[in-house]
C-alpha cells in the first residue's frame, strides 16, 4: 500500500513520532503509569469519532460526484440536438440566398423613397430658409448681433434635423437628397462667415469698445459662448459620432484668443515705421511702457466684467503682452546695436518692466503677477547681450585711450613745462581723465546687473593694462628720438616726472574702481598683471631719467682716473653740480619714487665711478702717487656721500662706502699684506671677482706676480656666499676685456 501512497507512509511516521514524543512526556515517571488505561480509552473514543466523520464526508462527496455525472450526460444530449437543428437551418439559408439577392434593388428603392419622403415632409420648413437668411443678414448689418446669431442657430438646427431624418433611414443619404438640402442652405455658411468677421472686428477693438460701447463686446462674447456650447454638444453629445455637422467645430473661443493676440502684436510689436535706433529706441520703449500699462488697466477694470470667469481674460492678456513683447525684444536684440542701445534694452528689460512703473504697478496688483510669466528675455540672451555690450564698450575705450595717449604725447613737445599741483609736483590731467572715463563705464554697468558691472570692471583693468603697455612703448620711442636730439622735447625730464606722478595717481585710484569698494574695509587688490604694467611703466620712466643723468655725467667719468684728476677737486665738483641739478628736478616727483630715484642715482654714480677706475687708464708709478690716488678717492667719496646725505639719502643706504674701502686697498704700503686686505674686502663685498681684484691690483702698480698669485689663490680658497638681501655692487660692474697683444708677422708678440 505504501508503494502506491508514499504520502500515507510519511504521515504515519510523523504520527508515530508525535505519539511517542507525547507518551514520553506524559509517562516519564512510574507513578504516571496508573492512568494508562484512562488515556487508552480516551484515545479510542477520539479515533472512533474521527473515523465516523471521515466516512460521512466521503459519502457526501460520492453522492455529489454521481449527480454531476448525470447532469453532464444530459447536457451532452442537448448539445447534439442543437447541433442537428443548426445544420438544418444552414442548409435552408443556402437554398434561399438567390432570393435575397433579387430583393436588393427593392431595398434600395425603399431607402431612397424613405429619404425623399423625409425631404418632402420638411419642404414647408425649407421654403422659409431663404427668408430667414435674408432677415439674419439684415440684423447683422444693423449691428443686432444677438438676433442675427439666433437666426443663424435656428437655421443650423433646421439643417441638422433634416440631415438627421435622412440618416435615420438606416443607410447613407443619397446624393440627390443631400443635394436638395444643400441647395436650400447654400447661404448659411456665408452668413456664419459674415457674423464671424463682424465678431473678430469687435474683438480686435475690444480694449477700445469696453470703454466706449461694452454692450457690443459683451454681445460678441455671448455669441462665442453659444457657439462653444454647440461645439461641445456635437462633439461630446449622444450624436457625436453619427454624422459630421458642416462647419463644426467652429472653435470660436480659440479664435477669440488668437484675434486678441494678433491685435496686440499688430498694435505694438509690428509697426514698421517705428525708429528703434539711438534716442528713438528710448522713446519707443517709453511708449510701449505707457501703452501696455494703460491697456492692462482697461482689461482689469473693464474687460474682466464683460467676460465669463473661465475666460481668465486678465491672465491671458498679460501672457499675450508678455510673450509678444518677449518675441519683439528678441528681434531687436538680434540686430546690430550700439552700446547705448544695448544698455537701454537691458536696463528696460531687467528693471523697468517689472517695476512699479509698469507690470508691478499698484493698479495691476495682486491679479497681475509677472513673476509667474518667466523672464522677459532668457538668461542666456542677457548673458550674450552683456558680452556684446562689454565688447562695444571695450572698442570705444580702446579708441579713446589711443587718442588720449596721442594727446598726452603731443603735450610733451610744448614750450611750457607741465602744470604743477599746490605742492610743486609735476602732473597732467591724464589720470583724472582715464579714471573718470573708466569709472563712468563701470557705474553705468552697475545700473543693469552686478554681473555686467564685474565684466566691465574686468575689461577696464585689461584696457588700463594695455594703455600702460602702450605708454611704456611710446616712452621707449620718445627716448630714442630724444637721444638723437636732446633739445627735443624741450622739457623732456619734466614730462617724465609728470608721468611718474600720473602713474602713482593711477595706482592709488585703481582700487576705487572695484565694485563695492566703498563697503570694503581695505582697498581692493590691484590685479597682478596690471600691477606689473604699472611697475614696468614706472621703471621705464626712471630708467630714462637715469640715462639723462648718466649722459651728463659721462664726459666727467671719461676724465678719470687721470693725473689731472689727481691734482684737484674740479672734476668731483662738476659731478656734484650735475647731480644736484638733477636732484632738484627730481624733487618735483612724489615719494616713494623720489627716494627710489635718489637711491638709484647714488648707485649709478658709484657704479660708473668704479667702472671708470677699472678702465686701466692709469697705473700708479710710485708710493706718492698711490697716496695721492687714495686721498683723491677719499675726498671724492666724502664729498659725494655728503651731497647725497644732504639730499635725503642716509649713509646706511648709500653704496659709496665701496670707494672708501677701495682707497684703503690702494693706500696699503706693504704689498705683502694685500692678501689680508683683499680677504676683508671680499667679506664686505662678496660679489667681487678675481678679475675685479686683478684690475684693482694693477691700479696700485707695485704688485708682483707672486703677490698677485698669492692673493688670487687666497680668494679661491675662501669663496664667499652672498648674504640675504645683499645689494650687488661688483656684479653690475663689467670687467673690461683684456687687450690682445699686438703681433708682427713672423715675429714675437709685443
Summarize the structure.
Keywords: Cytoplasmic vesicle, Exocytosis. As part of the exocyst, may play a role in regulated exocytosis of insulin granules. This protein has 26 helices and no strands.
Radius of gyration (Å): 58 Å
Beta content comes to under 5%
The computed structural class is mainly alpha
- Strand tally is 0
Could you estimate the helical fraction of the residues in percent?
A: over 70%
- Helix and strand run: HHHHHHHHHHHHHHHHHHHHHHHHHH
Describe the sheet with the most strands: none
Instruction: Categorize the overall geometry.
Output: elongated
Spans of at least 5 consecutive residues with low confidence? 746-750
InterPro entries: EXOC3/Sec6 (IPR010326), EXOC3/Sec6_C (IPR042532)
Subunit structure: Interacts with EXOC2, EXOC4 and EXOC5; may be part of the exocyst.
Family: Belongs to the SEC6 family.
Keywords: Cytoplasmic vesicle, Exocytosis
Amino acid at each position: 500500500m505504501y508503494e502506491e501512497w508514499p504520502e500515507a507512509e510519511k504521515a504515519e511516521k510523523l504520527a508515530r513520532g508525535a505519539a511517542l514524543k507525547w507518551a514520553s512526556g506524559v509517562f516519564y515517571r512510574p507513578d504516571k503509569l496508573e492512568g494508562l488505561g484512562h488515556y487508552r480509552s480516551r484515545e479510542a473514543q477520539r479515533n472512533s469519532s474521527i473515523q465516523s466523520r471521515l466516512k460521512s464526508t466521503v459519502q457526501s462527496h460520492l453522492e455529489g460526484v454521481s449527480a454531476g455525472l448525470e447532469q453532464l450526460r444530459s447536457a451532452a444530449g442537448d448539445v447534439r440536438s442543437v447541433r442537428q437543428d443548426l445544420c438544418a437551418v444552414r442548409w435552408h439559408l443556402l437554398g434561399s440566398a438567390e432570393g435575397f439577392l433579387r430583393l436588393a434593388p427593392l431595398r434600395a428603392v425603399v431607402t431612397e423613397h424613405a429619404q425623399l419622403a423625409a425631404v418632402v415632409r420638411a419642404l414647408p420648413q425649407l421654403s422659409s430658409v431663404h427668408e430667414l437668411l435674408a432677415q439674419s443678414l439684415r440684423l447683422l448689418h444693423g449691428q443686432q448681433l444677438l438676433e442675427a446669431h439666433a437666426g443663424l442657430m435656428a437655421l443650423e438646427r433646421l439643417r441638422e434635423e433634416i440631415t438627421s431624418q435622412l440618416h435615420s433611414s438606416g443607410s447613407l443619404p443619397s446624393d440627390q437628397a443631400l443635394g436638395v438640402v444643400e441647395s436650400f442652405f447654400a447661404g448659411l455658411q456665408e452668413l456664419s462667415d459674415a457674423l464671424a468677421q463682424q465678431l473678430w472686428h469687435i474683438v480686435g477693438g475690444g480694449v477700445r469698445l469696453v470703454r466706449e460701447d461694452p454692450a457690443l463686446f459683451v454681445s460678441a462674447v455671448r455669441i462665442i459662448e453659444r457657439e462653444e456650447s454647440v461645439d461641445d454638444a456635437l462633439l461630446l453629445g449622444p450624436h457625436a459620432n453619427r454624422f459630421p455637422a458642416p462647419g463644426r467645430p467652429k472653435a470660436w473661443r480659440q479664435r477669440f484668443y488668437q484675434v486678441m493676440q494678433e491685435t496686440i502684436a499688430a498694435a505694438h510689436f509690428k509697426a514698421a515705421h517705428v525708429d528703434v535706433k539711438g534716442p528713438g529706441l528710448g522713446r519707443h520703449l517709453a511708449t510701449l511702457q505707457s501703452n501696455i500699462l494703460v491697456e492692462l488697466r482697461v482689461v482689469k477694470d473693464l474687460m474682466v466684467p464683460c467676460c465669463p470667469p473661465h475666460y481668465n481674460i486678465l491672465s491671458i492678456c498679460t501672457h499675450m503682452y508678455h510673450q509678444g513683447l518677449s518675441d519683439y525684444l528678441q528681434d531687436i536684440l538680434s540686430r546690430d546695436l550700439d552700446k547705448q542701445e544695448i544698455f537701454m534694452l537691458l536696463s528696460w528689460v531687467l528693471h523697468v518692466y517689472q517695476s512699479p512703473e509698469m507690470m508691478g504697478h499698484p493698479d495691476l496688483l495682486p491679479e497681475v503677477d509677472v513673476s509667474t510669466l518667466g523672464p522677459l528675455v532668457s538668461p542666456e540672451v542677457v548673458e550674450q547681450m552683456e558680452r556684446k555690450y562689454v565688447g562695444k564698450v571695450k572698442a570705444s575705450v580702446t579708441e579713446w585711450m589711443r587718442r588720449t595717449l596721442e594727446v598726452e604725447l603731443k603735450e610733451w613737445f610744448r614750450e611750457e613745462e607741465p602744470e604743477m599741483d599746490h605742492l610743486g609736483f609735476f602732473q597732467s590731467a591724464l589720470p583724472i581723465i582715464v579714471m573718470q572715463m573708466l569709472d563712468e563705464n563701470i557705474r553705468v554697468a552697475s545700473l543693469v546687473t552686478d554681473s555686467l558691472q564685474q565684466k566691465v570692471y574686468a575689461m577696464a583693468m585689461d584696457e588700463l593694462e594695455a594703455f600702460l603697455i602702450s605708454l611704456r612703448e611710446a616712452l621707449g620711442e620718445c627716448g630714442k628720438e630724444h637721444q638723437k636730439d636732446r633739445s627735443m622735447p624741450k622739457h623732456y625730464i619734466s614730462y617724465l616726472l609728470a608721468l611718474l606722478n600720473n602713474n602713482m595717481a593711477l595706482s592709488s585710484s585703481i582700487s576705487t574702481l572695484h565694485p563695492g569698494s566703498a563697503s570694503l574695509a581695505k582697498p581692493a587688490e590691484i590685479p597682478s598683471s596690471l600691477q606689473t604694467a604699472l611697475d614696468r611703466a614706472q621703471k621705464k620712466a626712471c630708467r630714462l631719467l637715469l640715462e639723462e643723468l648718466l649722459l651728463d655725467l659721462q664726459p666727467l667719468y671719461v676724465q678719470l682716473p687721470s693725473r689731472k684728476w689727481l691734482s684737484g677737486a674740479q672734476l668731483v665738483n662738476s659731478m656734484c653740480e650735475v647731480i644736484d641739478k638733477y636732484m632738484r628736478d627730481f624733487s618735483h616727483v612724489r615719494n616713494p619714487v623720489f627716494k627710489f630715484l635718489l637711491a638709484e642715482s647714488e648707485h649709478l654714480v658709484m657704479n660708473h665711478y668704479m667702472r671708470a677706475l677699472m678702465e686701466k687708464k692709469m697705473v700708479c708709478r710710485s708710493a706718492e702717487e698711490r697716496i695721492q690716488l687714495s686721498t683723491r678717492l677719499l675726498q671724492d667719496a666724502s664729498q659725494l656721500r655728503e651731497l647725497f646725505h644732504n639730499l635725503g639719502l642716509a649713509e646706511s643706504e648709500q653704496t659709496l662706502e665701496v670707494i672708501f674701502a677701495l682707497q684703503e686697498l690702494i693706500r696699503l704700503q706693504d704689498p705683502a699684506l694685500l692678501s689680508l686686505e683683499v680677504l676683508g674686502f671680499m667679506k664686505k663685498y662678496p660679489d667681487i671677482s678675481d678679475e675685479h681684484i686683478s684690475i684693482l691690483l694693477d691700479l696700485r702698480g707695485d704688485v708682483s706676480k707672486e703677490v698677485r698669485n698669492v692673493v688670487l689663490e687666497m680668494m679661491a680658497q675662501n669663496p664667499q656666499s652672498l648674504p640675504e638681501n645683499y645689494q650687488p655692487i661688483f656684479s653690475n660692474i663689467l670687467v673690461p676685456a683684456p687687450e690682445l697683444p699686438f703681433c708682427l708677422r713672423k715675429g714675437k708678440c709685443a
